[in-house]
Design goal:
homodimer; about 150 residues; two-stranded antiparallel sheet; 6 helices; about 50% helix; about 5% strand; globular; DNA-binding
DNA sequence: CAAAAGACTAGTAATATTATAGACTTTATA
DNA sequence: TATAAAGTCTATAATATTACTAGTCTTTTG
């Protein structure tokens, strides 16, 4: 049940882009290098990931001097589920319970397959969290933790 | 978030072994071939998987003529989580939220990493299902479905 | 026009996955 | 006690995926 590095990096980058600028401003434009430095991610690899996210419509960018990436929509309108699916594909543990990308999985009788029933529950549990958590929820939660720890 | 074929086959085989024999008897002893035929799994591959499960203490076996595999404990004492972990490793999507196999995941600050917080929730949601569902629960659910459909 | 920044494509090394093959061991029974 | 049935164990092959790296192209600003 593993999240790939692509997925991990992409999610971390999106969260970074969702964090309000230093003085409580609105979501920022950031350069690839800035993000890769801050999040300790290979610049070239991150480049690919951000490009994918952009082509999927979750990011916008500005080319040339003073350019960078920024969220295509407000942080409260982008869910982790959307990001995850772009980078790591369907959320479901087996294809036969996928809502977004169903395929038969090869068991003798899908209707009465007990594993399928349980994996359906697992899929729903995961999707419930990922599809109902926005980038804004995450940054909010982060600052709550920081406040509690008295950091920054 | 994918379940591997090993995991899928292993879980299906364990469920098959947990199904009460035709005339409402107790869990049965089955041969590899029997299971592989019924579940449409390569015999040789399944052989490996069952052996792993045996070495992990979830199955017992009898060698020689009339031999086969059977559950090491009653179906109500074996959870899907136990089986899953033997075949597919930790349930957690990222190592830094794994209860059974923690490792740092490389983010700059683990304490305040928002992704980690959410992935912790995901891990718990998955583990909640897998660790609280026994083989007996699955077969019970299967027969409920069969009854509802009027099958068999 | 030069430099800064993203866009895009291709390639690659390492690892994991999904098997397959074959030789060996144990056991029942004819 | 020989033989066939069944599980045990280790090695290897084929393929796919992962996690990058490299390099060239395009856009924008000053």
């Amino acid at each position: 049940m593993r999240l790939s590095k692509r997925g991990e990096y992409g999610l971390r980058a999106m969260i970074a882009l969702a964090e309000p600028a230093d003085k409580g401003g609105s979501p920022q434009m950031m350069q690839i290098k800035e993000i890769s430095l801050r999040e300790q991610i290979s610049t070239k690899f991150l480049e690919q990931i951000l490009l994918t996210l952009k082509n999927a419509g979750l990011l916008h960018s500005k080319m040339g001097v003073g350019g960078g990436y920024y969220l295509a929509r407000s942080a409260s309108e982008i869910t982790l589920g959307q990001i995850f699916r772009v980078l790591d594909g369907p959320v479901a543990p087996v294809k036969c319970v996928s809502q977004m990308a169903y395929e038969p999985c090869g068991c003798p009788d899908e209707q009465t397959c007990g594993l399928r029933l349980v994996m359906g529950d697992v899929r729903n549990a995961i999707a419930d969290i990922l599809d109902n958590t926005t980038l804004a929820d995450v940054t909010k939660r982060q600052s709550a933790v920081r406040k509690k720890l008295g950091i920054k």
